Every structure is written in C-alpha cells, then in structure tokens.
C-alpha cells in the first residue's frame, strides 16, 4: 500500500513539473519538449490530466513527435501518444 501511495505522489509530481515547464513558471520561457516528456511519464503512471495536456501539446505542435507534423484529429493524436490505445480508438 505504501508503495502505491509513493508511486501516486511521484506521478503527481511529474505532472506538476510538466505543468510548470509548459507554463514557463520560474524560467525565462516555457520548455515544451521537457514538459511533454514529464506529461508522458505522468500519463503512463495513470494521471488523466497529464494525458490530456500531452494530447493538447501534440495537437498544437508542441510535443516532441510533432515538430514537423501538421495538426490532425484528436484520435490520431491519442494513437501517436499512446500506441496501446489503437485497438480502442
């Protein structure tokens, strides 16, 4: 039980760090690639808001994999962000 609580706190911290990097809090400018990395880690740990923020970053072209790709449908974004969801979408 303690291990699960610790994992939850770590995931929340990863999400919070992603938010700070995404908004540029405490920095000269936002660091979108780093924010996407932290959102992905938190999303992989089950934080739904992190998955949502990561998908939004991909949609507007701020995620790592989307540097040269045009914006596309949200289902395609989710599929690229989380390939394991392909069977659901």
What profile does the largest beta sheet have? none
Question: Which bin fits the share of residues in helices?
Answer: 55-70%
Number of strands: 0
The residue ranges in which pLDDT falls below 50 over 5 or more consecutive positions are none
Helix and strand string, N-terminal first? HHHH
Count of helical regions: 4
Q: Residue-averaged pLDDT, rounded?
A: 78
Q: What oligomeric arrangement do these chains adopt?
A: single chain
Ends: how far apart? 33 Å
What would you say about this model in short?
With 89 residues, the protein is mainly alpha-helical.
What keywords describe this structure?
89 residues, mainly alpha, 62% helix
Write a structural description.
The chain is flat, with a radius of gyration of 14 Å. The protein has 89 residues and is an all-alpha fold. It has one domain. It contains four helices and no strands.
List the helices and strands and how they pair.
Blueprint: H1 2-23, H2 32-44, H3 48-59, H4 74-81
